[in-house]
């Protein structure tokens, strides 16, 4: 088997398969290789719904081999190194592959180990994460069996895939507890590394009302550092404390609720909070094989592939493109963003092949479907300027039933039947 391809795609997820399919629709004779070690392919946007008890986890998984586009070659291996000066990729098996053009889209890395104790307690002790196929069903078990107490939901300070997921499950949990009549017995905390609930004002205003409705206590600019599932203690560092939490920690029974300690950084406080259930989201970054490669953006501590944010062409290697979660384009890391990025990469890659200047532009479009309760959803769409770019002739900042149907029924079907095949 030849180890040279006209186009070599790193990653067989949403981005990689979409680009491969779209390239073949435009130019059927291309010799394309797709490098990906995974035997399974996951529809991850539904894992929040799995955690909320309204979607079957088995419907989010298929065999990768059944999704690889015809007339491409699947190289079932993992990348260990890039040498863009010789147009070479090295795999962990020792195989070296050469290319004329490279598309890098292996997704994002979940850094579970950045929160001390998290890996050891996941899936037990009432600690879960919808960012794991294995543990998303356990989230629903926790929510369903909860009788009241302190519920903690976290969001890391790093960029993450599906930025709304950390609080989507919180709203659904609160709605479920409200329907069960126990919400007044639930002390809900959202510990987030972000500075606000959402970066686009029109949508943030709606979510602020939801936070108030469910009496959720928010802790922004906070970084979770460790969790102990057996003692039910979570630690995070923050500059400012929510008034509600300050009162509880300073009350007579504060010792049973948690504590505040000084850290080595003068303006930070370490909060130790006792919980009954916790949904955690791990910090995330570019895969290690990108972080250590010449393709990385050295100005970005997360190590993403350095690209022009409009053309998605590499800033230093013109025959290299990147899209999706591993790209340095400063857009939200969502499947919706990939759907707009893929045609730009395809158009500009074909232009470079013909010695033309890449002119297709990606303007930072992303979308985040945020359920605020069972049966109602707000579809947040926006671009690089954080300006709403609404698709439908309704006020999408107002949660409604039609968008819930879009999220639960339409989008999964589109993904498997149209998006991966390059026709949507």
Structural features, described:
It is a single chain. The protein has about 425 residues and is of the alpha/beta class. It is about 25% helix and about 25% strand. The chain has eleven helices and 22 strands. The chain has helices spanning about 15-25, 45-50, 120, 135-145, 165-180, 200-215, 245-250, 255, 290, 335-355, 400-420; strands spanning about 5-10, 30-35, 40, 60-65, 70-75, 80-85, 90, 95-105, 110, 125-130, 150-155, 185-190, 215-220, 225-230, 235-240, 260, 270-275, 275-280, 285, 320, 365-375, 375-380. The strands form six sheets. Strands 1, 2, 5, 6, 7, 8 and 20 form a seven-stranded mixed beta sheet that branches. Strands 10-18-11-12-13 form a five-stranded parallel beta sheet, with helices on one face. Helix 1 (about 15-25) runs parallel beside helix 10 (about 335-355). The chain is globular, with a radius of gyration of 22 Å. It starts with a strand and ends in a 5-residue tail after the last helix.
Quick overview of this protein structure:
With 424 residues, this protein is of the alpha/beta class.
Put simply, the count of helices is 11
Q: Which structural category do the helix and sheet elements fall into?
A: alpha/beta
Roughly how much helix do the residues carry, as a percent range? 25-40%
Count the E strands.
22
Strand content: 25-35%
Largest sheet: number of strands, sense, barrel closure: 7 strands, mixed
Instruction: Average the pLDDT over all residues and give the rounded result.
Output: 95
Our Rg estimate from Cα atoms comes to 22 Å
The shape, in one word, is globular
The parts where pLDDT drops under 50 for at least 5 residues are: none
Give the CA-CA distance, first to last residue. 32 Å
